[in-house]
Amino acid sequence: MVSLPILAGKRIFVTGAARGLGRDFAQAIAEAGATVVMADVLTDLVQHEAQLLVDQGLNVSAVSIDLSQKESIQKAVHTAVERLSGLDGLVNCAAIATGVGGSTLMEYDEDLWDRVMTVNVKGTWLVTQACTPYLKASTQGKIVNIASDTALWGAPKLLAYVASKGAIISMTRSMANELGKDNICVNTISPGLTLVEVTEQVPQARHDLYVNGRAIQRQQLPQDLNGTAIYLLSDMASFVTGQNIPVNGGFVFN
């Protein structure tokens, strides 16, 4: 008997998929058998990355999305659902994570605060809202929100980012309670500091803080998160909802 890939037949929409964790999630999910639509505000880059995966034989495509614009979100989701002929899963990975640190709460720029909250929190809500009617039509809809373990230990000088990721964890619980009746599972993954493009600007002292404070003392890589995401999108997680799963090598426990 030949076993199918764990996500065979699943149709998944991934935001923030042009680079970093979102890009890695999209590839891993497609390799697990799903058909994936990759969405990002970096239109040219997400199209390029999708083509690279297509060249590897994976079933992916790309759309442009701007999480600060409701119309853009609705258009991207509509296009994705048309291509996929439905929707089984959503990964909310898009977020502003660059240029958000270094200032104390007394110094923090109000415009930056508003941008972070608009994209990271409001954008996640609006994408989920747009996808929910299609997930309801699926037999086992799944939503995976990407937060951060900074919300669990209160990383300093990252106020808006930490607040936005704490909001993601809280929204997940509320969404899970509302959508459970529709057999939709909603969960959060909270990564630790991970080696991706955006973290190259993080001071070495912060990287060392994480490595030295982990139970498993090494750098975290994007692939360390893939198994958890694939599990939560799969039928094996059909009774798991409202949970926040830190994947950080034991830097902080939930």
UniProtKB/TrEMBL annotation:
Keywords: Oxidoreductase. One of its GO terms (molecular function) is oxidoreductase activity. Belongs to the short-chain dehydrogenases/reductases (SDR) family. PANTHER family: DEHYDROGENASES, SHORT CHAIN (PTHR24321), ESTRADIOL 17-BETA-DEHYDROGENASE 8-RELATED (PTHR24321:SF8). This is SDR family oxidoreductase. It comes from Acinetobacter rongchengensis.
